[in-house]
Amino acid sequence: MQLFQILQVAASIYLMLLVLRFITSWLRGPSQGGPGDLLRRVTDPYLRFFASIVPSRAAAGLDMSALVAFAVLMWAREIFHFRAAGFDLTLRLIGWLAASVVMQFGRWIATIFLLATLAQWWMVRYVGRTGSPLARVTEAISRPPLTLVQRYFRLGPGKDEDVYLLMATLACGVATVAMWVLNGLVVGVGPGQLPS
Q: What are the beta bridge partners of residue 63?
């Protein structure tokens, strides 16, 4: 059981490193030299493995291979957690864990998109374009939902970016609520309550 506890902690630490890697890649500046280079050397082999087997780009410009790499590591961490707690790995438990991780991951992604599109809308509407690191991060994160809204909802000429951003924020809000509800349904059926 101690081995699974060690693996769970290692997976948690590596997940934090991946999050830092994603954030520094959005900022572009801090990832150059020193800690950024070390972070890339530690995380790139894992990310490259998934980039070699998963198509890297989706319609909205998301790096799907990075998302899959992150979700797989979350799933492995959960498996280590349940093994450390003494659960046997049944197909039912593995399936429940996969559904749980997908729902949690979807909830986090939807919430991040919601916050980023709301922040970007507020900046475009009230502050204007700035070159600050926060502005660059919110613009980078809000770009995929904004691209989807612009692709599927043509409002015609003369519509400002803030209208599209507001629509993207509303769409992300609906997706966030849906993911929270679905996550509650999946997680509410714990591994001990799974039907036989």
A: 57
Please tell me the distance from the alpha carbon of residue 163 to that of residue 8, in angstroms, as a whole number: 44
Burial of 91 (0-12, 13-18, 19+ CB in 10 A): exposed
Name the pTM for this structure: 0.69
Domain ranges of the chain: 1-89, 90-196
Q: What is the pLDDT of residues 85-135, one digit of tens each?
A: 888 888 888 888 888 888 888 888 888 889 988 988 888 888 877 777 778
Region of residue 144 (phi > 0: left; psi between -120 and 50: alpha; otherwise: beta):
alpha
Sign of CA dihedral 165, 54, 39, 12: positive
| pLDDT confidence of residue 195 | 42
